[in-house]
User: Fold this.
Amino acid sequence: MRFFQPLILLAALWAFVPFAGAQSKAGHRAQIQEWREARESGLRVPKGWLTLAGLFWLEKGENTFGSGKDNAIVFPEGGAARIGSFHLQNDSVWVEILPDVPALHNGEPVSRMLLSPGWAVLDLGRFSWVVLQRGDRFGVRLWDAEAPALKEFSHIDRFETDKKWRITAQYNPFEKPRTLIVPNALGMDIEVQSPGMVRFKVGKTTGELLAIEEGADLLFLIFADATTGRETYGGGRYLYASNPGKKGKTMLDFNKAYNPPCVFTPYATCLLPPAGNRLTMAVTAGEKTYGDH
Assistant:
């Protein structure tokens, strides 16, 4: 099953993960504090991870939806009892909205619309939804602007900022990108492309991480370490690094290691660390676990 690259990018776009290589004139501790504040502000944005309220898998044919219990897909209370129907046929998903329901797309009323292929978000009061694809399955991702997780969120616990975890690493590219089989939170095996390996040292301990390709300017790292499942999330953590220069050097700042969205919601479909990205060292930097997902 293949994982489409733009869906990886959503982890950055909707959780607001500032560019890993960006530097301000402030000292390192102040830079990390700025990053943390931006990260938490990003989590509070509309249609962010804290507002996810459902992930509903579609069956072939008609799937009625709304807050009424007789629907195939039951939205939370607070919306119309029957909004309309999703229609899954082959690799396409259409939506039909009932005439008296004021659903909108880009501010315009919707009666019938192709939702997939594509990324068309529909809005109805406090709710918004989009159709996504995972492997050969299609699902409806639902956001609720009044989600309890958003109202309850205050902060993320973290390790103390420590400059020793800001490390110059050596990037070793492969002759050609390698295909990695990476598990996700749904139990699927996903294919991603790895352009190379990042190698670094903390004290006398050496670590190696396979990088995932993400555009021309970023390396994306998914890793587990000796804190995983204890102080930090059992599904690992994410980290971005800038693409290396001509000498193959890049900066890993583990103070910016952050939780995947699955730590905030059961409705995300996060990638988990691939084989080979499980460090024996304890990375006592970055975000600690959150909640109980």
